[in-house]
Amino acid sequence: MSSSEVGKEGVRGERPGREAQIGKGLRGRGRRGGRRGGRGEKAMVPEAEFTSYYGKPILNPPVWKSLDIAGYFFLGGLAGAGSVLAAGAQLTGRPAAARALKISSLAAIGGSTAALVHDLGRPERFYNMLRVMKPTSPMSVGSWLLAAYGPAAGAAAALEVTGLFPRLGRAATAGAAVLGPAVAAYTAVLAADTAVPAWHEAYRELPFVFVGSAAAAAAGMALVAAPVRENAPMRTAAVFGAGLELAAAKLLERRAGLAAEPYGRGRSGAYMRAGEVLSAAGTAGCVLLGGRSRAAAALSGAALLASSACTRFGVFHAGVQSAEDPKYTVVPQRERLATRGTAAAS
Amino acid sequence: MGFFTDTSVCIGCKACEVACKEWNAVPEDGLEFTGMSYDNTQGLGADTWRHVAFIEQSKPIGQNETGVEHGAAPDASGMRWLMASDVCKHCTHAACLDVCPTGSLFRTEFGTVVVQEDICNGCGYCVPACPYGVIDQRKGDGRAWKCTLCYDRIGVGQEPACAKACPTDSIQFGPLDELRERAALRVDQLHDLGVEDARLYGHDPDDGVGGDGAFFLLLDEPEVYGLPPDPVVTTRDLPSMWRHAGVAAAALLGGLAAVFTAHGREGGAR
Ligand code: SF4
Ligand code: SF4
């Protein structure tokens, strides 16, 4: 209990005495350790196993609900990539596909915004998201992106359905198509910009997993909703999306080291594997049969949609799993310190 | 302004935990018999802004009885007890503050990091962003809460409640450079006594978070106390993250454009 006076300039008056001799160690007095490294730590012998505080996580795991946030990732991707496909379909004379995709994009972006607001601890204050514009906060950037993309997607769909103001409709369609990829990609940054090992360490590959998954989902939606005669580019888009997603996910698992382990384990592992199987089935189905049979196309499309949703849930749970186990926080940081130590020593 | 917590003199009395709860009117969040030594608050969270960790180790500390001349022979009692009062680090590069989309988290004139509870909308982004697992969402309230370094007290010239209550001055409050100086002296003193384990944690302005506004003197590796050994502010990689996302978005747009170009108009090629 110091009786010092504290002000904005600091503490005036008494300093605590520091004579307490908390155990004099095992060595005799006066023998210095003398092994202090640059950060005041003694040189370390690498530990055989990692230690933790009663196995408690170091991080506070995300408080986000999986249905809301994984659902938000999925729906945002579906909407964003859908707007690109809609514009492409419109420009190349595929009106039924364009119309269906515009409507699905509007529904998806509406659903994803609702999920985001629902996940807030104080939903009635959601508008505080637009209180500031902060490039250091992906959630702030995303909110502004949604504020621009949502009305564009909405206008594109509404003008398409009503047939009013065709020129304005084309402008809205183009605007949504330009903003769509950003909506699909930024959610990867949203996840990666955290201390959660499985997300942060994956920040290079995650955007590609997400846009690939988004393209596959939107192509799947088009296969479900559009007639066979218009779906040829959608089938190619499905192959493109599923391929990109798979390649990026494999790269992630190879490159992220220990942080990639949760992607193959537990709930996350199950979702990721289900996503791969559904994606393979959907892609094969639409390539082989989607051009001939309406039913086969719709079925393949549904598989692609489900696959994209599974991948998003898999990514979400991988993050939660990696935050809940102190191993994923401690071991890579220890390795980092050890490499830095040897680099400094040599 | 900040804290220096010298865990070598902590006696585990939890006066800081209690003083913090009382002063800041932090709601009770249950007491549990955890089996984790004398720890029943478990970790920092929305309703625990000071947390005293208790670690029982079978490492002899030796020669620690006061008033006894131990001589040269090692007195290897079989166990030592580490106690440490943990708190928000008030990082120089604070991830929680960087990612907060509403501007609810802000940096005060004292260099500390504080949540404005009338602005926070409970998005929860700060929670997984903090590399130390400090800030959390309060159940039933929905907003994020953490140590304010007693913003209200230091504003009127009072030291924070925990530092005021600490009977051993394990928790010291003051200007950081002065605290760092004091801490360096203390480490040297302990090393001279033969306590080789003593080391500072979070004091280095060149570390991954630009130095902590609340740093520590520890007697073992940080992870033993539940602290990350080498925390890095996540936003350090943010420019690279945006670049990767930008390339991915362009790949999506370009890839799908190529698909439509290849297929041409309906009824055209293929
Ligand atoms: S320790 Fe965590 S909550 Fe405290 S300032 Fe740093 S990032 Fe924010
Ligand atoms: S929960 Fe509150 S303080 Fe934390 S990032 Fe969201 S708005 Fe900011």
Written description of the protein model:
The complex is a heterodimer of chains A (346) and B (270). By secondary structure, chain A is an all-alpha fold. Chain A has a single domain (66-320), classed as Formate dehydrogenase/DMSO reductase domain (Formate dehydrogenase/DMSO reductase fold). Helix content of chain A is 65%, strand content 2%. Chain A contains 10 helices and 2 strands, in the order E-E-H-H-H-H-H-H-H-H-H-H. A two-stranded antiparallel sheet of chain A has the order 1-2. In chain A, strand 1 and strand 2 form a beta hairpin. Mean pLDDT of chain A is 89; it is low at 26-48. With 270 residues, chain B is α+β, with helices and mostly antiparallel strands. In chain B, the strands form 4 sheets. A 4-stranded mixed beta sheet of chain B has the order 8-1-10-9. In chain B, strands 2-3 form a two-stranded antiparallel ribbon. The longest helix of chain B is centred in the last third of the chain and has 26 residues, at 238-263. The interface between A and B is large, with 121 and 134 residues. The complex binds iron/sulfur cluster (2 copies).
Reading side by side through the largest sheet of chain B, how are the strands ordered?
8-1-10-9
Could you report the average pLDDT of chain B, rounded to the nearest whole number?
91
The tally of domains of chain A stands at 1
Rg value of chain B: 24 Å
Derived structural class of chain B? alpha+beta
At CATH's second level, what is the architecture of chain A?
Answer: Up-down Bundle
Largest interface (CB < 8 Å): A-B, 121 and 134 residues
Q: Which outline of chain A best applies?
A: globular
The oligomeric state is: heterodimer
**CA-based gyration radius of chain A:** 26 Å
Mean pLDDT of chain A, to the nearest integer, reads 89
Number of strands of chain A: 2
